[in-house]
Design a protein that fits this description.
This protein is α/β, with parallel strands linked by helices. It has 12 helices and 17 strands.
């Protein structure tokens, strides 16, 4: 199918009905910040599958768009769309592909062969996977997302590390994500049946887009299906391009898009990396009167103490040096971030991190 038709052209995006290889070929090179692709799986399903308890039919993916003659045909298709995706990607862009064990390993090889540089493979662990009805294998409870930069030398890709940490209650986000599959009210229905067999959860796309793009960036999905990527992109204030070969699925995406209101700009601001903030030396805290020479600093358990000297250095017994050096020596560690290690105590003995005092100074500098 290759009947090009633009379903929607809006200020923030475009929904195109057509074949993604041909349609991406029409897009400008180096114009896209983030590609998210959920390509056909090549599931090679044979026969229909019935639930053992009531013999009802399991909704698998038996559609024509998932059928390929053989692995060679699938590989040729994969390389064709990946080459176009790489061409349209900016030097600072990145690409995510999601797949199952049926296709993700073939895609991984193609990615490396085409020059992409793999950054992570993220496992989406499904909290509510479909059981293995025949009991002949393990429950298939995961999908894999490969995240890559345009090439090895392309170091300028976006990764909103602090935003991911913040989303995870201030703990570094890991590469295994536990999220439910798309069910209930979120699952789009048409005449009482699923409108698309493989609609992805919006939470998954929101996480990908928040992690790897900025507000105003262009997000492209060449296999749009029911539109999850553009819905999440629009909500998060990104520009979007969706390509889908089926006019029926594109219609579903258009209807979903129409219901989305982008979040306010202020709500889209994410946590900034500390290194992007103005540098405040520890001595500034003394100069601003937030800490006094002669005051004692403590570790979080109040087991380690050090005395602050007039020049901003610390004395810990015979040892002297910066907040970082004394923090490291006190723990017998190679290195220490003194800002997160040391605290000051008030009259009641309650502790305040010196990092939060630094934040006060930074706010004055803003
Ligand atoms: C796995 S589904 C994507 C589902 C989507 N992520 C969602 O959340 O709804 C793959 C989609 O790609 C479409 N497709 C397959 N081959 C295509 C091609 N060559 N060009 C454009 N779309 C294609 C199929 O029609 C199908 O809707």
């Amino acid at each position: 199918m290759s009947h090009t038709k633009t379903k929607i052209r809006a200020e923030a995006g475009e929904l195109i009905v057509g074949d993604c290889v041909q349609e991406m070929a029409r897009l400008q090179a180096d114009s896209v910040d983030l590609v998210f692709a959920d390509p056909p799986y090549n599931l090679q399903l044979g026969g229909e599958l019935l639930r053992p308890n009531n013999q009802s039919r399991v909704d698998g993916v038996a559609d024509d768009w998932d059928k390929f003659e053989d692995f060679a045909a699938y590989d040729a298709f994969t390389r064709a769309w990946l080459a176009e995706a790489r061409r349209v990607l900016k030097e600072t862009g990145s690409l995510w592909v999601i797949g199952t064990y049926h296709n993700i390993h073939r895609i991984g090889t193609a990615l490396q062969d085409l020059g992409f540089w793999l950054l992570n493979d993220v496992v989406w662990r499904k909290s509510n996977p479909m059981p293995n009805f025949r009991g002949r294998r393990f429950t298939n409870a995961q999908e894999t997302l490969i995240w890559c930069a345009k090439g090895e030398a392309h170091k300028g890709y976006t990764f909103n590390y602090e935003a991911m940490k913040s989303l995870n209650e201030d703990i570094q986000m890991r590469s295994d994500w536990l999220l439910p599959i798309c069910t209930g009210a979120e699952r789009v229905k048409k005449n009482g049946r699923k409108a698309h067999p493989t609609q992805k959860p919006e939470a998954l796309l929101q996480r990908v887009i928040l992690a790897a793009s900025k507000p105003g960036d262009v997000v492209l999905d060449p296999f749009l299906g029911s539109g999850t990527t553009v819905v999440a992109a629009k909500r998060l204030g990104r520009r979007w391009i969706g390509i889908e070969q089926s006019a029926d699925y594109a219609e579903v995406a258009a209807t979903r898009l129409a219901e989305v209101t982008p979040l306010d700009g202020v709500d889209l601001e994410t946590m900034k990396p500390k290194r992007a903030e103005p540098r405040v030396p520890f001595g500034n805290l003394l100069e601003r009167g937030l800490i006094a020479p002669g005051e004692t600093l403590y570790d979080r358990m109040k087991k380690v103490k050090a005395r602050v000297r007039a020049d901003g250095s610390l004395a810990h017994g015979p040892l002297t040096g910066s907040i970082h050096r004394i923090g490291a020596l006190a723990q017998g560690a190679q290195a220490c971030n003194g800002w997160t290690y040391w605290y000051v105590a008030d009259e009641k003995g309650d502790l305040t991190s010196i990092d939060s005092l630094r934040d006060l100074v930074r706010k004055e500098l803003d």
